[in-house]
Protein: RRM domain-containing protein
Amino acid sequence: MDSNGNSDDRSLNPDAGDIVLGIGSSRSRIIDQEIEEMQRKLRELGEEIDLAIVSLNEQIEMTTDQISGVSAEEEDPAVAIARHKSEVDSRSIYVGNVDYACLPEQIQAHFQDCGAINRVTILIDDFGDPKGYAYVEFAEVEAVEKALLMNDTKLLNRPMKVSPKRTNVPGRTHPWGRRPFQPYPTYGKFPRFRRPQGYSPYY
Structure:
């Protein structure tokens, strides 16, 4: 008891401070455990997210490969036909000034030393008569170079004209391509119309 008559709690309860300190340290341990538990859950969640991202990237790569494969397989038929025709033409030659009585077997025998021949085609008109030229398709591109050296060689006493076969491009019959249809000649921006026959500006 002090000089005023008040009692000193610390002297009566000497362990009170220890109890307060014990409660504070217990709460601190609980908070630390909760923080550690939250950190652990966050780490696990981060690992799951990383695995999900990796799996998603793999699925995207697989889908891209499948789309690329389908695009390669489902090629436009017109493009495939044009590519095949261009490849065949690169192994073919044009033979001009062919005798009208010449047979495909004779042309094949004439060029057989150049390489293996797949086909000999002699063009004919609407009446079934030969047009005087032919195409020879070889099995290898190298045979074309050898065949070109046989230009002006004679078959049935006629010198043949040998040149590489050209690939026909649709719409390119004219050297500059197809010209637009113009019913009347044009001068500047306005067309010049034809005057009817017998027209006279005076009466």
User: Anything to note?
Assistant: The first strand starts at residue 92 and ends at 96. Strands lie at 92-96, 117-124, 130-138, 154-155, 158-159, 161-164, 186-187, 190-191.
